[in-house]
Design brief:
Length: 629
């Protein structure tokens, strides 16, 4: 077991231990955030020896739960959240999970009930994988730990690789139990799994956004109060906390409310460290300067660096992620968390999840127009289409035709094989489909998921459970834990999410503004330059130029003479054509070529036994500027 836990030592460099609990072997690596003393060592046993636990993540309401449990007669010997979670299970059994507010993946061994109880948090912030072997069931936080156990040989999931290479983005794969390894699945977000010692299983989905009770929304004051409360509990830590900061609404809202709460005595004051990425092509300096001036936060800068240096990070990022990731922007996050670690920061607040919960992506405007059409709000539909056209979107008529086509697809459903025809037509139009060999093309046509046309509220719920969010959370977790830093995401505090999902559409996207409710709630509390900017950047990178420039010679040699071609997964002639078109800037094949680069790297790591790449990113320099070079 120790060799397995050592494989993920980066997730917990502060402590390591194993424990035999009847037929269950527990292993743990600890990143000490709350109660850093040895009293919170894991695996942790209850005082009567009935229970044992290993637990990854944070229970943000542990103080409130501890107070409640104390009133019920329980006593505590630690000040952390692990003992609170263990005691909550002792008091409420499997239903304890319903009371938890946080991000978590845990395994509790219950000797009295002769079972193992495993659960994952509502949003899937913390990972949990499982594999069934002849020796039993293995759970782990990362795929590489399951590989390292050596209990079974897991081949690549060729169908999933085919769909990734075709689309060039993980978001198009759909999200469920499937992983890039055959025979290894992930426990879905919001699910609890009970396995008794005799091998019987029970699964319960204890939370899902589609099952939330209907309640009216009282206004943006309620949203602001819920957000402030999320910030308050997410700052609970016994280690230094920082913040990822761009010039956008999400991270700026976190930074501004954090500092305001600290000044009002509702959060721990202190010198806040921010970690910022700047690029010449995407200028957010005005927004960043205004935010830094308002908050007094200390910035730490990550610059674009040179492309060749960024290229060297790909093997390390792929090794830490275990699976291909959605875009080159992940490398920026990888570098930012390295920078945070170099400054001694152990916890970082991130704005991840706000776009899915509050309606931040431009693609959601199609879902808004479909919502209006379905409700018969034709005047509002025409008005919104005209406003979007004035802002540079498709012509109003084209947008209305698109909404009508979405409604037609929704109404027809599977009638006469319509959905199947649409599914296969979309699969053939994927940017990398022509690149694939015959077997992979067949896999894409066979296994590509149906993408339903959804009104806005349903589209947001789908984005949370099976769309973009699971992929972005995976990237956030792997990037942060690669550097032994814990990423926290206040926008995914489940009380805030449940409130946000009750928003009316005109407080999501309206008149060309995204995240209207957040803008209204934060107006006057964040800089006007942030609230009044429509353009969305995120952490953009100039990957097209990298692939056509400094990266190109190595990329060309790697792909044309690589494993993808040798296995027949891709067509060499098509690949050569894509490379040349991209080099000449005649076409933009960034997503497909970067996807191919990642898969080629993955296959090389797989061939070498998934050994850690030799070279590690150099430590960040002691000054305030860190360049990937």
């Amino acid at each position: 077991m120790r060799r397995v836990t050592d494989t993920i030592a980066h997730r917990g460099p502060d402590d390591a231990a194993t424990s035999q609990e009847g037929p269950v072997l527990l292993g743990f690596r600890r990143l000490a955030i709350l109660d850093r003393s040895s009293a919170s060592h894991q695996p942790m046993r209850s005082g009567d020896g009935r229970l044992a636990i290993v637990f990854n993540g944070e229970i943000y309401n542990y103080i409130e739960l501890r107070d409640e449990l104390t009133r019920l007669g329980h006593r505590f010997r630690t000040s952390g959240d692990t003992e609170v979670l263990l005691t909550a299970y002792r008091q409420w059994g499997e239903r304890a999970v319903d009371r938890l507010r946080g991000m978590f993946a845990y395994c509790i061994v219950d000797h009295d009930q002769r079972c193992v109880v495993v659960a994952r948090d509502r949003m899937g912030i913390k990972p949990l994988y499982l594999a069934r072997t002849a020796e039993g069931v293995l759970f782990a936080s990362e795929l590489k730990a399951i590989r390292r156990a050596g209990l079974a040989t897991h081949a690549p999931n060729v169908s999933r690789f085919a769909r990734f290479l075709a689309a060039g983005r993980t978001e198009e794969l759909g999200e469920g139990r499937e992983t890039f390894l055959d025979g290894v699945e992930q426990l879905p977000a919001g699910e609890q799994w009970v396995l008794d010692f005799d091998g019987r299983e029970q699964r319960r989905r204890y939370w899902h956004p589609d099952a939330l009770p209907e309640r009216p929304f009282s206004g943006v004051d309620e949203l602001r109060a819920a957000f402030d409360d999320a910030i308050r509990v997410h700052l609970r830590a016994d280690v230094p906390v920082g913040v990822m900061l761009s010039g956008g609404m999400d991270s700026v809202s976190i930074a501004c409310r954090w500092t305001a709460l600290a000044h009002n005595g509702h959060a721990e004051p202190g010198r806040v460290q921010a970690f910022c990425y700047v690029s010449k092509e995407y200028d957010e300096q005005t927004q960043l300067d205004d935010t830094l001036s308002r908050t007094g936060i200390t910035p730490n800068w990550l610059h674009d660096g040179d492309a060749q240096a960024l290229a060297t990070l790909v093997p390390h990022a792929v090794w830490h992620h275990d699976e291909p990731f959605h875009s080159p922007t992940v490398l920026v996050g990888y570098g930012l968390y390295a920078l945070a670690a170099s400054r001694g920061i152990k916890v970082v607040l991130s704005g991840q999840g706000a776009d899915e919960v509050l309606g931040g992506y431009p693609s959601f405007t199609d879902n808004l127009l479909l919502s209006l059409l379905m409700r018969g709000r034709l005047g509002a539909l025409r008005n919104q289409a005209n406003i979007l056209e004035s802002l540079g979107a498709r012509s109003a008529n084209a947008q209305l035709l698109r909404a009508a086509a979405m409604l037609r697809a929704r109404l027809l459903g599977s009638a006469g094989g319509y959905a199947e025809r649409v599914r296969t037509a979309r699969a053939r139009r994927e940017p990398g489909f022509a690149l694939l060999g015959d077997a992979l093309q067949a896999a894409v046509l066979r296994d590509a998921p149906v993408r339903p046309e959804l009104p806005l509220g349903q589209a947001l719920r789908h984005a949370i459970t099976g769309g973009t969010l699971p992929h972005y959370l995976r990237a956030e977790d792997r990037n942060s834990m690669a550097h032994s830093v814990e990423a926290r995401v206040p926008f995914l505090d489940h009380p805030f999410v449940e409130l946000a999902l009750r928003l009316p559409d005109d407080l999501r996207l309206w008149d060309g503004w995204n995240k209207r409710a957040l803008r209204d709630a934060m107006r006057g509390l964040v800089p006007d330059s942030v609230v009044n900017r429509r353009q969305k950047f995120g952490f953009p990178v100039s990957a097209r130029g990298w692939l056509a420039g400094d990266w190109f010679p190595r990329l060309q040699a790697m792909l044309l003479d690589g494993e993808l071609v040798a296995r027949g997964w891709v067509r060499r002639d098509v690949l050569a054509r894509y490379l040349e078109q991209h080099r000449r800037l005649e076409a933009d094949h960034t997503s497909v070529l970067f996807a191919a680069k990642q898969v080629e790297t993955w296959l090389a790591l797989d061939r070498d036994g998934w050994k850690r790449p030799d070279a590690i990113i150099e430590p960040a320099r002691a000054d305030s500027r860190y360049v990937m070079a």
